[in-house]
């Protein structure tokens, strides 16, 4: 039997061994002094020469050129067939197999191998080498371990003009791929030759992106489809929505029409839980939330204007900058606005006015991050201005927990997918903070300086072990955090529940107290107004009494004067009569 091996590529074509050898030093250039050049110099007389006793030192830095590595593979095809047998033809292969099986050597070889194979199978049946002996025992929490985080890889924007990494999205089937959206958020300052591309990176190969995503306008957000890992949807700076299929190349499969798209940049796009897996909704600072079906992006399937007066007036709408959708609550969603308000909405309401349920206020600036706790959906996290706040759906006046006011502006944040009490925030000074409110409330459990420039985006992988941070200069940093921060601790859910309930109860008591105080103030102000009215009425009465008294006084005086005049006249008449008699 003739055996032929077919190679699709020669070994010499895809890699060559490096051979190094020792050799002595070589002199390439020897420049001798030129006495004629001395005429160009002027002697300095007198000459001051400072002397220092310490030895003079010099510092030199050398940085080697970055070596770009490239992964190459080889595909093995089915071989071992004679030249006259085509492996694609079923009949020929069956005929050849029957011919070989009749060969005596084949039968003897199978008989020899059979006993060894039977022995191995019996061994496997006797001992399970993959048996877990301690699967029932709980993992003890290591109290002594200090929390830590380390940089695994750094992915830099390959273009000369650096752009901000505004959005990150992990591949749904593991932590091997990270999609990064790049755009310049500085209004009208983008260079004319600035690249529009965004990239998908392989986390193990930082030198070159695995795939380029080519949009019509710079992407601000980019999201993998959790049901189909080949499909991504992105929101553009010009307000359009587009989607890509990695199997079909770098160009967008379909893009929404400009006249039916947003009028401002699309800051957030989220995939909805649906049977088809093709529904998304988007939010923009133009004050609209739009629902789309990526199979038909010519126009949105539904539209909501975030007008707090519930009149649907786009001129009064609040600009949306963050979105939150929890699959376990398919009818509810939340929107974070530029004005610092969180708007809670109900998609299945009958009228547009009823879709806006309520608002939560407590921030002084745009809400850059908004996310429900994966374990307790009634509690949600907001990141804005200089603080991160945790809210309860039941209390609208104020948050139940909040961080201290930081010196640097907070730009993004998210919950840990595996621990209910842990959340992450990033700041403008390039710092990543990891908070565990069961361990510390006033300060972060771990604070790490990731880079010198501002961090703008943050995304945690589903296993909670890896997280990506995007910076202002387009650097995406992949970090690994300590096992203690990504392993569910004993009784953690019960402790977190107790903490949330206690803080909610406390805020409810404070809210009732404030309401009572406001009512007292209102009643006090009303009483004071009544008293003022009475006093004013009393003042009017007093003036009338004084005027009446004055009138009576002057009338009495006039009466007395008239009486006196009459008496004087009587006396004069009496005197005249006496004189006549005399």
From TrEMBL:
An annotated GO cellular component: outer dynein arm
Amino acid composition bias (Basic and acidic residues), ranges on this chain: 61-75, 514-540
Domain of life according to the entry: Eukaryota
Single GO BP term: outer dynein arm assembly
Coiled coil: none
Disordered: annotated segments: 61-85, 514-544, 562-582
MF terms (GO), sorted A to Z: dynein heavy chain binding; dynein light chain binding
Gene3D superfamilies in alphabetical order: YVTN repeat-like/Quinoprotein amine dehydrogenase
Principal cellular location given in the protein's record: cytoplasm
Cross-referenced PANTHER family: DYNEIN AXONEMAL INTERMEDIATE CHAIN 2, DYNEIN INTERMEDIATE CHAIN
Name of the protein described by the UniProt record: Dynein, axonemal, intermediate chain 2b
Organism: Anguilla anguilla
């Amino acid at each position: 039997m003739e055996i032929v091996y077919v190679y699709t590529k020669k070994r010499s074509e895809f890699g060559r061994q490096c051979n190094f050898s020792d050799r002595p030093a070589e002199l390439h250039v020897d420049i001798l002094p030129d006495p004629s050049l001395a005429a160009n110099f002027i002697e300095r007389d007198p000459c001051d020469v400072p002397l220092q006793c310490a030895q003079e030192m010099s510092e030199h830095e050398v940085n080697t050129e970055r070596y770009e590595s490239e992964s190459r593979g080889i595909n093995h095809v089915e071989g071992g067939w004679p030249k006259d047998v085509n492996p694609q033809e079923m009949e020929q292969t069956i005929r050849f197999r029957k011919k070989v099986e009749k060969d005596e050597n084949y039968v003897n070889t199978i008989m020899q191998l059979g006993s060894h194979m039977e022995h191995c199978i019996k061994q496997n049946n006797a001992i399970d080498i993959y048996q877990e002996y301690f699967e029932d025992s709980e993992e003890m929490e290591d109290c002594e371990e200090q929390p830590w985080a380390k940089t695994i890889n750094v992915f830099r924007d390959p273009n000369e003009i650096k752009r901000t990494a505004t959005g990150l999205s992990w591949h749904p089937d593991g932590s091997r791929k990270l999609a990064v959206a790049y755009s310049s958020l500085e209004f009208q300052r983008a260079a004319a030759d600035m690249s529009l591309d965004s990239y998908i990176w392989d986390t193990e190969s930082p030198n070159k992106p695995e795939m380029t995503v080519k949009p019509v306008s710079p992407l601000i957000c980019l999201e993998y489809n959790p049901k189909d890992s080949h499909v991504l949807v992105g929101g553009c700076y010009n307000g359009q929505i587009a989607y890509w299929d990695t199997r079909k190349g770098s160009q967008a499969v379909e893009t929404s029409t400009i006249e039916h798209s947003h009028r401002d940049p699309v800051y957030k796009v989220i995939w909805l839980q649906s049977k088809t897996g093709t529904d998304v909704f988007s939010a923009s600072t133009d004050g609209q939330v739009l629902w789309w079906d990526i199979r038909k992006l010519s126009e949105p399937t539904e539209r909501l204007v975030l007008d707090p007066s519930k009149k649907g007036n786009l001129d009064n709408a609040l600009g949306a900058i963050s979105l939150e959708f929890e699959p376990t609550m398919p009818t509810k969603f939340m929107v974070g606005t530029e004005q610092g308000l969180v708007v809670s909405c109900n998609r299945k309401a009958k009228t547009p006015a009823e879709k806006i349920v309520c608002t939560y206020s407590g921030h002084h600036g745009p809400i850059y991050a908004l996310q429900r706790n994966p374990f307790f959906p009634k509690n949600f996290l907001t990141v804005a201005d200089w603080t991160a706040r945790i809210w309860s759906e039941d209390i609208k006046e104020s948050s139940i927990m909040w961080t201290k006011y930081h010196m640097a502006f907070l730009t993004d944040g998210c919950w840990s997918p595996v621990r209910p009490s842990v959340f992450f925030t990033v700041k403008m000074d390039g710092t990543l903070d990891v908070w565990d409110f069961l361990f510390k409330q006033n300060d972060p459990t771990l604070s790490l300086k990731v880079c010198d420039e501002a961090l703008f985006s943050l995304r945690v992988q589903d296993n909670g072990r890896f997280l990506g941070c995007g910076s202002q200069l387009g650097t995406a940093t992949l970090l690994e955090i300590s096992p203690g921060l990504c392993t569910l601790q004993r009784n953690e859910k019960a402790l977190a529940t107790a903490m949330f309930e206690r803080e909610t109860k406390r805020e409810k008591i404070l809210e009732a107290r404030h309401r009572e105080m406001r009512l007292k103030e209102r009643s006090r102000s009303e009483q004071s107004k009544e008293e003022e009215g009475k006093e004013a009425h009393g003042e009017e009465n007093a003036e009338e009494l004084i005027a009446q008294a004055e009138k009576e006084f002057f009338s009495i005086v006039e009466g007395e004067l008239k009486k006196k005049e009459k008496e004087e006249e009587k006396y004069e008449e009496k005197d005249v009569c006496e004189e006549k008699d005399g």
